[in-house]
Amino acid sequence: MSATADVRKQRLVRFIRRVWDEGDVEAADAWLAATYRIHHDPGDPWDGMTLDRAAFRDRVRQSRAAFPDQRFDIQGLFADGEGVAMSWLWAATHAGDLPAFPASGRTIRMSGLTVYFFDAADRLTGHWQVIDRLGVYRQLRQACAGAPPGGGSPASPD
Amino acid sequence: MSATADVRKQRLVRFIRRVWDEGDVEAADAWLAATYRIHHDPGDPWDGMTLDRAAFRDRVRQSRAAFPDQRFDIQGLFADGEGVAMSWLWAATHAGDLPAFPASGRTIRMSGLTVYFFDAADRLTGHWQVIDRLGVYRQLRQACAGAPPGGGSPASPD
Description:
- The structure is a homodimer.
- By secondary structure, chain A is an alpha+beta fold.
- The first copy, chain A, has a single domain (3-145), classed as Nuclear Transport Factor 2, Chain: A (Roll), CATH 3.10.450.50.
- Chain A has helices at residues 3-21, 53-64, 133-143, and strands at 32-40, 50-52, 71-80, 83-93, 107-118, 124-131.
- The first copy, chain A, has a 6-stranded mixed β-sheet.
- At the A-B interface, strand 3, strand 4, strand 5, strand 6 and helix 3 of A face strand 3, strand 4, strand 5, strand 6 and helix 3 of B.
């Protein structure tokens, strides 16, 4: 493994721990280039956008609001060229309200793969990501099945 | 890039073209180890299974049946250690029936990321994958909205 690949992997692991797991959004600047582009992230509200550092912090805050104890379990890191691909599992308590899914207190599990892109100074410039959103939707629907609002018997994507 | 990484990327691109795009399942043996493990692929019927070569061919045939003209558009390849991560877009005509979604003739688009694992002889031993299944489900629901069977007004995961 090249020195650059090694540095980027180590930086990425610390970034995930500190910013996404622990929610220390003020620390994010240490890892970010001036702008961060969300190249591809289907279903994400910021898909296709280029964020400055303040907008990036807002994204992390909003993304973590319903899942304040979230933890990423990194499965693999594949560094090559300008990118580091990361496979991951994720778990969190559904402790805050989401649209159509009021806080349930249940543990929600998720998985995904993210390619993080770096500049020559090893700062993050953006990502290309796919998440198992259908799996999350099914869990949230089940977690909120006894909740009063919504009603009806939703058709299943199963 | 190391010689091994280069060989694996080239082999992987040819495998995707020949087997998954063109549907030449009989040719798959040239790329496969004796067994192929689906380490992680949420929503896939073969998730968690270890397939021999005959079972692998069946998986490709069944996966392609509803989408015989499918094409993968490889976005990035990241080779590191035993794996090559591949980001991809996909498009196909919904030409065959799926459970709850009769053939619509519509173009369906999808994206995902797959980590392919290789042995020392550069043969494929398995994968770890996440696909945007929620996006596909929404497209199929829309494509089949005018279709007679099913009925009702399905609740939306939007």
